[in-house]
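Help needed: design a sequence for this.
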């Protein structure tokens, strides 16, 4: 194995290893952005949601993060909450709605 090969392998492996180290808040923020919410709103909401939702509920939210990858358009908070309702978890809906409202008023 040459030094160049080791270097190239480490360049590929390092981001994969670091992605596993991301905090839950960073992962939720990224998921909200991928779902179509603006970055400042997603950053504000993520902290509130991580504090109030279980790991299982946060994983259920991940299913929504890929819905917007096809057209890469921004969605309104109302449209995102509509998607949240489809999860049929009143606590997720409540926490997300409150986080969106308080963050939207702050921004």
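Sure. Designed sequence:
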């Amino acid at each position: 194995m040459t030094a160049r090969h080791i270097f190239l392998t480490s360049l590929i492996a390092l981001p994969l290893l670091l992605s596993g180290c991301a905090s839950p808040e960073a992962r939720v923020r990224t998921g909200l952005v991928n779902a179509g919410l603006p970055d400042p709103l997603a950053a504000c909401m993520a902290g509130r949601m991580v504090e109030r939702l279980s790991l299982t509920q946060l994983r259920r939210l991940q299913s929504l993060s890929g819905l917007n990858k096809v057209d890469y358009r921004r969605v309104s908070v109302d449209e995102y909450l509509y998607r949240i309702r489809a999860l049929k978890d009143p606590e997720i809906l409540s926490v997300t709605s409150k986080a969106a409202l308080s963050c939207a008023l702050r921004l």
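Helices lie at 3-19, 24-34, 39-52, 55-65, 77-85, 90-106.
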